[in-house]
Design a protein that fits this description.
342 residues; mainly alpha; 11 helices
Length: 342
């Protein structure tokens, strides 16, 4: 999610209450059509997620990366930003995640489905239990809800690692734009996302653009908890409620996103410190402070103690549910519209 996650959307099949395999029992043409629809719907989910979630993300990043004396808390940060920079200040750095989420949601959902199927075929439904390869493939094509919660969690972990290679440069550029406090562009080091990307590439190459990749991989390893808890919540609500399928996806997606942030937030604070640390050299943005993830974590602990790892948590936690819920509503609505035109 901004995740600016990037945050990934829950089950993309609006008729699928139990996390069944996409395309199960369907023709190749129908499966291909679903893949196409998912990409288009993912664009709209990314727009909805950014519209609702980005102001929360801006407040979160500023609280994570500044001295305690600059802002008294999330409300003070919001008021100062709005007063000094206007409403547009809350959407600083919005372009990279908007473009990035279009790709990240598509890759996240596609890789998640692929890894689930791979785990189902090769780990949780061993082929040696079948009498033939045909039977093995037939067993693997059964509904995905037979995949245990551990399988969903591992699939989420693998998908998180995959999408990190797109998320890292997007979030890096976004974070640097979000901590530019000057109200006028001529006073800022970067005039926008393209200018920021060009300057980093010119002075530090691709290694500079991917500054913070390791911390992104650590942060997204917590997708294990996100997708594991999403499966548990989906099963529970399917069994113990009369909610419709979209409602189950709504509540399971929002609640699992909040569980994810509770578990992963300290690692996100470290990631943001690394991504906003000066790169130094010809870029002229100052001297680098942190040699790696451990150095950044130690500095946070030394300066602020354990509370330093939770600065900005309130806006992040408040954002998690509505941003993912609204994105899911947009995703499901577009999917139903595309299915209705057939």
């Amino acid at each position: 999610m901004s995740v600016t996650v990037a945050s990934p959307i829950a089950n993309p099949d609006s008729t699928n209450k139990n996390n069944d395999t996409l395309g199960n029992g369907q023709s190749a043409r129908a499966i291909s059509h679903k893949n196409y629809d998912g990409f288009v719907a993912g664009v709209f989910s990314g727009i909805a997620k950014l519209s609702v979630g980005h102001p929360f993300d801006t407040i979160k990043v500023r609280l994570q990366t500044t001295q305690k004396s600059q802002f008294k808390g999330p409300i003070d940060c919001l008021l100062q930003t709005a007063r000094n920079e206007g409403a547009r200040g809350l959407y600083k750095g919005a372009t990279p995640p908007l473009v990035g989420w279009m790709f990240m949601d598509s890759i996240m959902l596609g890789s998640l489905t692929f890894y689930r199927r791979l785990l189902h075929e090769n780990v949780f439904t061993p082929s040696h239990l079948a009498t033939s390869q045909v039977e093995a493939k037939a067993n693997a094509a059964q509904t995905l809800h037979t995949l245990p919660t551990l399988g969903h969690a591992i699939g989420g972990l693998m998908a998180g690692f995959t999408v990190s290679f797109i998320a890292a440069p997007v979030e890096h550029v976004k974070a640097r734009l979000q901590i530019q406090y000057a109200p006028e562009k001529r006073q800022r080091l970067y005039s926008g996302p393209i200018d920021c990307t060009k300057k980093i590439l010119r002075t530090h190459g691709f290694s500079g653009l991917y500054h913070g990749l390791a911390s992104t991989l650590i942060f997204r390893s917590f997708f294990f908890i996100w997708w594991g808890s999403y499966d548990l919540l989906t099963r529970f609500l399917s069994t113990h409620s009369t909610l419709s399928t979209p409602s189950i996806n709504f509540w399971a997606g929002g609640l699992s996103a909040q569980l994810f942030w509770i578990a992963s937030y300290p690692s996100d604070v470290v990631k943001q410190r690394i991504m906003t640390d000066p790169l130094g050299g010809a870029l002229g943005d100052g001297e680098r402070k942190f040699k790696g993830w451990g150095a950044a974590a130690k500095e946070i602990w030394r300066r602020d103690g354990p509370r330093g790892f939770w600065r900005g948590f309130t806006p992040c936690f408040l954002r998690a549910f509505p941003a993912n819920a609204v994105a899911l509503v947009a995703f499901e609505g577009v999917m139903r519209g595309l299915e209705g035109r057939l």
